[in-house]
Design a protein that fits this description.
It is a single chain. The chain has 150 residues and is of the alpha+beta class. The protein folds into two domains: 3-59, no CATH class; 71-147, 3-Layer(aba) Sandwich (Glutaredoxin). Helices cover 45% and strands 12% of the residues. It is built from seven helices and four strands. α1 crosses α3 (36-46), α2 packs antiparallel against α3 (36-46) and α6 crosses α7 (139-147). The longest helix is centred in the first third of the chain and has 12 residues, at 20-31. The protein is elongated.
Length: 150
Amino acid sequence: MDINKIDQIIDGHNSEASSLIQVLLEIQSENRWLPRQALERISERMDVPLSRIQHIATFYKAFSLVPKGRHEIHICMGTACHVRGAQNILNAVEDHTGIKPGETDLALKFSLETVNCLGCCALGPVIEVDGQIHGKLTPPETAEALKKYE
């Protein structure tokens, strides 16, 4: 990530330590992950110990310290989706992408995560790709839905 872009984000918050989480969120949004170089620059410019920044970045699930794919897939494994075949949907996604939950493919096209609930239980089983919900899926429909993101 470009140091100038990091500095712009920090400057937008007047380098105030109280804005640390917002700065991290903005950098994550720009870059899809938090590179070590960015964390070191934040530490230096905002006068916050690197260990504190790393603690925050590892505590919140919204942050990633490893590169993420261009398309983030979230599969609901909650009760309603589970009883309607969420495991079969997960298997279809794993087969299609070649990755397991918590992984990103080598081409940085897809990242895969499981979640406990996406809040649309009536549509189960459900996946979310880049914020778009796909519901009442079968495994073949799942593979078809993912083709839109290739």
